Amino acid sequence: MLKNIKLINYLTIKNLEINFTDRLNILTGETGAGKSLILSSIQLFISKRFPKELKRSKNENLEIVLEIHDEDEIIILRRLVNYKNQSQYYINKIESNYEDIISLFDKNILFFSQKKYIELLGKKNHIEYIDQYCISSEKIMDFLDLYNEYTSKISEHEKLEKLKKDINEKRDFYTFKLNELDKINIENEDQELQFIEKIKRNKESNINIDLINNIIKEIDEKILYSLSSAIKDTDKIETFIKESESLNIAYENIENVSFNLSKFVNNFDNNDIDYEGLEDQLYLLKELKRKYGLTLPELLSERDKLRSTLNSKNKIDDDLKKLSTNILLLNKKILKMAEEFSQIRKNSSSKFSRKILSHLKDLGIFKCNWLVSFRDCELNSKGIDDIEFLFSSSDEISPGSLSKVASGGEISRILLSIALELSDSLKSKTIIFDEPDIGLGGAIAEKLGQKISTLSKTSQVICISHLPQVAAFADNHLLIKKNDSEISKISASILTKEEKIEEIARMLSGEKLEDEAYILAEKMIR
Known about the structure:
The chain is of the alpha/beta class. It contains 16 helices and 15 strands. Helix 5 crosses helix 9 and helix 5 packs antiparallel against helix 10. The longest helix has 50 residues.
């Protein structure tokens, strides 16, 4: 139940806190006192976009805090709207997302507002009301789980059929592409970098070998040749024996240098590595990257997918066969459940209609017609029934769609009648009515009060009323007033029994309170 609501910086309210009880809470007060303003804040709590004009001060945060008691659990829902009109949501002081807030709100609070009236006018929600009346929520969830499994299998089957068709139509292209990608002999990006480094080092080595060969040629063809001539000439001069020996030593040393360099060149062997092949691989990879706009890992992944796809025809056929069998079995199960649901709905609809008619007659629509229309439809998440509530305010007129024949006041009373019949499924929820008694009076208003009071025996009810016949049934009577306080221009007071009698008397007689009004008010309060 909704235990408490706190409003901060909300329109004319700087700070206001209101407590509710677990039975029938009725808000009364003069027109314009702020009753609807307070209740609308509960509905605005889940509004996706918060109207910035509802902030009392643009530079201060607006806050709406709802304290919900769910059995033994206390849940504090808080919405904060900052100066930029951006919303933050909290569940028990932990920042949460909008979806979680909505889930908790819908689980605990049902607001009969203009939005609910619009929902009732659309027939797509009518089947849900019937199901809440006659089918357990567990059975509905079982059906929905089975239906989701069924549609999931159908979707999976359609994807496989599309894949099979795609493979057949593009087999030649896939084969050509796979043949291209199969030419890649590089396993990963690290190996690609290794190939690049090897080619770089090989090029540097080849440059060095060319330089050494030039040095050897220079030594053999020029330096040694010149030294050999110089030695021959020196040997002819007997006085230059030492000089001749030095030249011979130099010749031998330089000859050793040439020999060692030649030995190095001869021992240098790049034949173990196919550098030309490495370059071809890197060039091929570069071209495939450019052609398909993919990285090496993506190309390798694409190759694996293509190979798997081209080899998967037999597996796809097997999977399709299994899926078809599963779909057929699920279809039989779900159709059986849908037919059972349809029969339950049809068997219960007459009783449901009689109950609704009884409530509507109590609420002043005396000669109305109401029936539940059934049409067959294709299997969907609700079953095989297309259901619509049909209504007419006179037994002389054939019932028609609510959206075409029902007035606002009639829709309000129809919703209350449905809520009364669904009271068992609404247990533990807070049900909020915003002025359900508009256009009513006298004995009919008293009937309305009785019915709302009956509803409050299984669910907490919060209701705005302008009629003393309704307000008299309140278990918790809240008087909403305007005041001149700086904290809040609106006050909410829980009335004692004596104060409640005085408020009912005011509602009966107006500004001037008469003794008869007090006596009647005291009699009206249960």
